[in-house]
Amino acid sequence: MIIDIHGHYTTAPELHNQWRIDQLAAYAAGQPSPEYPEISDEIIRETIEQNQLKLIKERGSDLTIFSPRASAMGHHEGDQRISLEWTVACNNLIKRVVDLFPEDFVGVAQLPQSPGADLTETIKEMERCINELGFIGVNLNPDPSGGQWQTVPLTDKFWYPLYEKMVELDVPAMIHVSASCNHNFHATGAHYMNADTTAFMQLLQGNLFGDFPTLRFIIPHGGGAVPYHWGRYRGLADMLKQPSVDTHLMNNVFFDTCVYHQPGIDLLVDVIDNKNILFGSEMIGAVRGIDPQTGNYFDDTKRYIDAATISEEERTNIFSKNARTVFPRLDAKLKERGL
Question: Which residue, of 72, 135, 251, 321, has the fewest CB within 10 Å?
C-alpha cells in the first residue's frame, strides 16, 4: 500500500474560495461575515475526480492524507474569529471529500490560529476534527503572522496546552506555514523552507520531547535545509551541549519526500534514518509543472522513491509502514478495513 501523507485541497470549489474573499472584505468593512454558500456534492466530485484522484490513479498511490490548502490558511488575515470561521469551513469541506471518496482520502485538520491569540479555539477545533470528523492529525503553523515571525518558538510553554491535547488524542502535527505577507520571502520557495528549517532548529535548542516523549511532528518538504546540512545540526547540538540529534529529536521528528528531483531524494534517504521518512507528494501544490530534464511532473515523487538505491523493506517503510506508525488513528482505520 502506498500512503501519501501530504495532500492539500488546492482545487477547492470557486464558491468556497470566493466566500473567503467576501469574508475578508466584510471584515475590512466592519460587517458580519456572509453566509457560507451551498456547494453540491457534484461540484466537489468534479474538483477531485479531474485533479487529485486522476493523478493518484495515474501515479499509483492508494491513499492520501488530505488537508485544506496550506497557502490559503491565511492566519495573518483578519482576527481569531475570522480564522475560526474560515478554518471550520475548510475542515468541513475536507470531511465532505473524505465522505465522498472514503477509500482514497483521510482527513487532517487546519487549525484556527491568529497572531496574539490564545489556543482556546485552536484546541476546540482540533478536538472537533479528531473526535467528530474522524481526522487523524493536524497542521500546525509555527508562524501565524505570515513571515513576520511574531510568535514564540515551538518549544515555548505557550504551546504546551496544544501539545497536551495532541498527546491525549494521539495525533501528530505537520509543521506547515501558510502564505507570506513579508515581501522578502516567496511563500513556497522561501517561507516554507525557512519555516521547516527554523522549526527543526527550535526543537534542537530546546527539550520539548523531554516533556512530551510521545509528541510527533512531521517537518515537510524533505525537512527544508536540514538533511543537506545534517553535519551542521549534529555539530550545533554538540556546541549547544545538547544530546545527539538522533536521540534528542529523531524519535519524534519525521520528514516527508516532497523533494522534487532525484538527487534530493537520494540525499534524503542516504542521510536520514529510514524510520524517519514518510512518502508525500503535495501534488498539485507548490511545483506543478513538468521537469524538462525528465519529462515527468516534478511532484510525481513516487518515481524518485522507486528509483532510489534502497531495499524493498526500506521502500515499504517509506510508502506505508512509517505513516501507520506516526498516524496511529490511520493504522486503526486501515485495520478496520482489513489492510
Answer: 251
**pLDDT tens-digit map of 55-103:** 999 999 999 999 999 999 999 999 999 999 999 999 999 999 999 999 9
* Helix axis angle, 80-100 to 120-127, nearest 10°: 10
Residue 251: Cβ-neighbour burial (10 angstroms; 0-12, 13-18, 19+): middle
Q: Taken in order 58, 60, 66, 72, is the CA torsion positive or negative?
A: negative
- Residue 290 pairs in a beta bridge with 297
d(CA 288, CA 243): 39
d(CA 102, CA 96): 10
Residue 159 · residue 119 · CB < 8 Å: yes
Burial of residue 166 (CB within 10 Å: 0-12, 13-18, 19+) is buried
- Taking the C-alpha atoms of residue 232 and residue 140, their distance in angstroms, rounded to an integer, is 26
Cβ atoms of 259 and 217 within 8 Å: the answer is no
pTM (predicted TM-score): 0.96
The catalytically annotated residue of 282, 313, 314, 336 is 282
Which letter, b or e, does each residue of 98-129 get, where b requires 16 or more Cβ atoms within 10 Å of its Cβ? beebeebbbbbbbbbbbbebebebbbebbeeb
Residue 64 in 3-state DSSP? Answer: strand
282 is catalytic: yes
Q: pLDDT tens-digit profile of 249-301?
A: 999 999 999 999 999 999 999 999 999 999 999 999 888 899 999 999 999 99
Q: Which residues pair with 64 in a beta bridge?
A: 4, 105
Question: What does each C-alpha distance from 308 to 261, 270, 301 come to in angstroms?
Answer: 11, 9, 11
For the chain, what percent of residues have pLDDT higher than 70?
A: 100
Query: First-to-last CA distance in the chain?
Result: 9
Buried b (16+ CB within 10 A) or exposed e, 5-28: bbbbbbebbeebeebbebbbeebe
